[in-house]
Amino acid sequence: MINRSIAILDFGSQYVQLIARRVRENQVHSLIFSPGASPEELRRQNVIGIILSGGPASTYAAAAPKPHPGIFEMGVPILGICYGMQALCEHLGAKVHAAAQREYGRTALNLTGDDALLRHVPRGTTVWMSHGDIVSGIGDDFVTLARTPSCPHAIVRHTARPLYGMQFHPEVTHTPEGSQILRNFLFDVCGAEPTWNAGSIIDQAVEAIRAKVRPGAQVICGLSGGVDSAVTAALLHRAVPDRLACIFVDNGMLRLNERSRVEAIFRGHFKMDLHVVDAAARFLERLRGVVDPQEKRIRIGHEFIAVFKEEAKRIAHAHYLAQGTLYPDVIESGHSAAGTAANIKLHHNVGGLPAELGFELIEPLRDLFKDEVRMIGELLGLTEEMVWRHPFPGPGLAVRIIGEVTPERLELLRRADQIIIEELVSAGWYRKVAQAFGVLIPVASVGVMGDGRAYQGQSVIAVRFVESTDFMTADWVHIDPNVLARISSRITNEVSGVNRVVYDITSKPPATIEWE
Ligand code: XMP
User: Peptide bond preceding 77: is omega within 30 degrees of 0, i.e. cis?
Assistant: First the structure.
């Protein structure tokens, strides 16, 4: 079964994924395509409406991306946003030129016409603008539905066909009526139905997995403890419970109780065939004397592949390897729905393995955004703690210990890290931050502990809380200082070997999120 979908043609706007998510929030399936997607490609995906995104180009520039002319003849409704409006109007004979005044930010919008697109939208509202070009000379083919003080055609509609353009951005929260306008476009103009929800996503994924996995062949799923691999495993378990084997490698660099938590959920609750490999000693041996961060990563990566391979060979009839690739990874590596082969993002843990071992890949999440993965994770019965877990790097605590990784340092960091997370959760801040952790800096700093000066053998713990949406940029969290006070007091009291706690107040860039 192919979903009825809304296509978003990507003209290079930073908001493309946001538009796709806004559509899906209304329980309507959406897919992102390259700007020149052909009518055949769109029909293949059962497209019932098209949104042309904004973009940084000018339609009159030499290399400006253009929509395929055939999409305007498909008979499906089209909504052009910003550059998308300019491309649509220009194609149908209007003029686009640089505006006398660029327009950025909030501006007043006044409706001058009526249309299904504007149902329940007040006659006067505010919208978010970000443009340097403008449409003029719309001729007789369009009617104007709204204007702003400096944009005479802020919303236009074709007189004969369901083609709309709007100069502002309905997808951003700064346009208060934006979600109403998008809802009107989806349900009143395109005739979409709200059927894309956690239940139907699971049903479709299960159906697709069953259709793909041959009888008698086993699927291997590497569990990392993170939400993506956990939901992948839970979906496979729902689809082919008898043909799934999960592998969890304890590399010794995990957080406190990480392994027992994974065992409790997957072996205890789901009764999965879970292979836990206790490889801590092997990893520690490989890290002996290593201080260079890159070298730590390389050694951990190689060791992981060796351990995983050995374990995978023990699983009879293993033919498939499951991976938790998400839709943003697919989009970033080429628009898959547009037919371009997508590179598979190399998961830090299983990169290279499919080819080496001759596995066929299964990626049940490759059509989903992170919020949808969390939504179906909850419905599949994963714990809230697992579903909302922050990302954790493959090399684990090894890149959070400056210098050599030793069992003593791991133990110390694990205890400090546990306190940091506990306090964050109990203060209600866990979900408000993207990542939270401690870093062990094994330098002695003078302290007064008890009666005497403490110096030898003491370390510093740096606390790092960041907020980020894509982890490419991040900012430190302006957290309630009382939370920091409790963390500092507990660590210095409860973790012997630490006499100083500091808070990292650096953004990314210039710093990275991890310290190594
Ligand atoms: P940085 O430190 O580069 O981190 O700002 C960005 C995001 O990537 C995670 N990270 C890693 N994940 N293997 C991983 O699987 C790694 O070697 C690694 N290094 C960083 C980091 O935790 C953050 O979410």
Answer: no
State how far the alpha carbon of 365 is from the alpha carbons of 236, 326, 480, in Å. Answer: 11, 5, 36
394 touches ligand 1 (CB under 6 Å): yes
Calculate the CA dihedral of residues 53, 58, 63, 69 and round it to 10 degrees.
Answer: 50
**CA-512 nearest atom, ligand 1:** 5
Ligand 1 centroid distance, CA of 179 (Å): 34
The pLDDT of residue 340 is 36
Nearest protein CA to atom 14 of ligand 1, as residue: 393
Structure tokens at 225: 């403890």
pLDDT confidence bin for 343, thresholds 50/70/90: very low
Give the tokens for residue 389.
């877990």
**Strand ranges (E), 201-335:** 218-223, 244-250, 273-278, 318-322
Residue by residue, DSSP assigns 192-231 as -----SHHHHHHHHHHHHHHHSPTT-EEEEEE-SSHHHHH
Q: Which residues are catalytic?
A: 82, 169, 171
395 lines ligand 1 (CB under 6 A): yes
Nearest Cα residue to 288 out of 396, 460, 407, 187: 407
Sheet strand arrangement including 163-166:
29-33, 5-9, 47-52, 78-81, 163-166, 151-158, 142-148, 95-111, 124-136
> For the chain, what is the radius of gyration of the CA atoms?
27
Cα–Cα dist 228/491, whole Å:
31
Tell me how many degrees the CA angle 452-456-462 measures, rounded to the nearest 5: 100
State if residue 435 touches ligand 1 by the CB under 6 angstroms criterion: yes
Among 296, 397, 513, residue to substitute to test ligand 1 (most atoms within 8 Å of Cβ)? 513
Residue 141 and residue 165: Cα distance in Å, rounded?
13
Instruction: Tell which one of 296, 299, 514 to mutate to probe ligand 1, the residue whose CB is within 8 A of the most ligand atoms.
Output: 514
Among protein residues, the one whose CA lies closest to atom 3 of ligand 1: 512
Q: For position 345, what pLDDT does the model report?
A: 31
165 Cα: distance to centroid of ligand 1 (angstroms):
40
| 3-state helix, strand and coil shares in percent for the chain, rounded to the nearest 5 | 35, 25, 40
Interval between CA 411 and ligand 1 midpoint (Å): 21
pLDDT tens figures, 250-309? 999 999 999 999 999 999 999 999 999 999 999 999 999 999 999 999 999 999 999 999
Summarize pLDDT for 146-200 with one digit per residue, the tens: 999 989 999 999 999 999 999 999 999 999 999 999 999 999 999 999 999 999 9
Q: Is the beta carbon of 512 within 6 A of some atom in ligand 1? A: yes
For 208, counting Cβ atoms within 10 Å of its Cβ (0-12 exposed, 13-18 middle, 19+ buried), the class is middle
CA distances from 100 to 103, 132, 254, 382 (A): 10, 8, 58, 55
Percent of residues, the chain, with pLDDT higher than 90: 87
Ligand 1: nearest atom to the Cα of 474: 5
Is the whole model's pTM more than 0.85, yes or no? yes
